[in-house]
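Reply to dn_fold:

You asked what the input looked like. This is it:
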Amino acid sequence: MKNPLILLTTLGVLLILIIGCEASNDQDDADANQEKTGDNQEKAEGSEEKAETVYLNGNIYTVDNDFSKATAMAIKDRKLIYVGNDEDADKYVGPDTKVVDLKEKTVIPGLNDGHIHYTSLGTNLLEIDAFNKPKEEILKLVQEEASSLEPGEWILGRGWNHELWPDEKFPTKEELDQIAPDNPVVLTRVDGHSIWVNSKALEIGGITKETPNPQGGEIIRDGEGEATGVLVDAARSSVTSEIPSYSRERIAEAQMKAQQQLFSNGITSSSDAGADLQEIDIMKELYKKDDLKVRLNVMISNSMGEVGEGLAYYFENGPEVGLFDNRLTVRSVKLMADGALGSRSAALMEDYSDRQGHEGNYLYSDEEIYNLVKKSRENGIQVAAHAIGDGAVQQVIDAYEKVLSENPLDDHRWRIEHFQISNPSQIEKIAELGIIPSMQPTHATSDKNMAEDRLGSERIKYSYAWRKIMDAGSHIIGGSDAPVELINPFHGIYAAVTRMDRDGNPPGGWYPEEKMTREEALRSFTTWAAEGSFEEDIKGSLEPGKLADFIVIDKDIMEIPEEQLKDIKVLSTVLGGEAVYEK
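and this is what came back:
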């Protein structure tokens, strides 16, 4: 047996060596950790990534959940990476950062018009501008156009409103025949639901005394039963189907003109309330060339009672979301349940107060609209339905509720476009079902002169009823319906806050109890509009991580006297960090 003392000594030495090694390793680890901590601390002290652009010294309304304010923003890769104060924003300034002094100007998120007709806004600029003009002036414009055209060439225009004329009567074909007998003339009413045509256009459309009214339309007639020259809703197609289509080049030109209209008015995003496949295809071509930059949420047009070509395509191929760097989304369908109040084609539950025996026009049967909604649900397509009259509103609600009970979808965000005339139960029902009302504030101030005549003193209390709708729990998507109304969103915000027209009438507002607050009006054109297209996570407010879409304006939107809201001017429009408009 070995000497125990030697064995113990050897073990002791080994133990000391092991402990020493472990201590040494621990110190090495500690030194390494200390070095790493030092690096991290040094990195933390200068960790802010450097921005491409920093905006300082601004009066910035972020329109976040708290409606907070800031003075500075930092932008990188088309998104906001910082929103806050000037001092902290300085940390994002690097050697290559562009710094912009806002000089205390007011900044708000890029505005989002929740309902326009994008291509029509552009083509409207290629035609006779009859917007709210006196009849005599419109006739003069038609005469001038006829003098420059060959016989048989079409004369097109839009914007007449007989409610603004002294006699408040529909115009006639004879008035156009006198100045343009050899050219078919088609002038669309401001609401887009009636056309004023001459005898040449009626002849081309095959409309005679014996032609019956189509389903969902009306040929306005005189006491002898002859067509007067005004065709409403579905009755228009006999003539409008004969109008030569615009070339692809002209449509592209119109879309570019529309974009400039949006940018110059501070609109960075919009919902196009009904486009066909050709229009969408032309948009894609323009996006590929980076000519189109505006963010569009496009609804597929489907005005017939069956599935049309465009809707069938998207049923087969599915929605397109966030194409071209979040600039183009096609995920919804636009249905047309009725006409418009001004043309007396909005579908009412009871007769028009100023036309007994007439309830307006339903463009679908109950079965047709149910089938369209059902098929859209099955194919993952969001539904938006034009419904102005309370009868059409009820038809849409019933179809939505039936389909959702059969095939539930918690976060559907189905919309009713316009939702102008309603009743208490409908207002409560849409809030209960999560149906979003998409409304246009300027429609109230434009329609006020005739709406009560059409509806009477009781129904008018639940028409254009923004406060009742919001108090029931709904968010309202704001929009213009351009070119039905002017595109300027500050006209809409002004109308929402004041309930007055731009001449200040009526003083104090039309049914002023329905006014929005300024914050609500601004949200309707920003965060609430973004919710309507499932995009609130990327736009609508100025917060880190969201798209750098904002505008600089010449007045403080929250502080100026309310009568000045309509006069706000856009100084700069920035989309994805790029200045796309400068005044």
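The radius of gyration is 30 Å.
Hope that clears it up.
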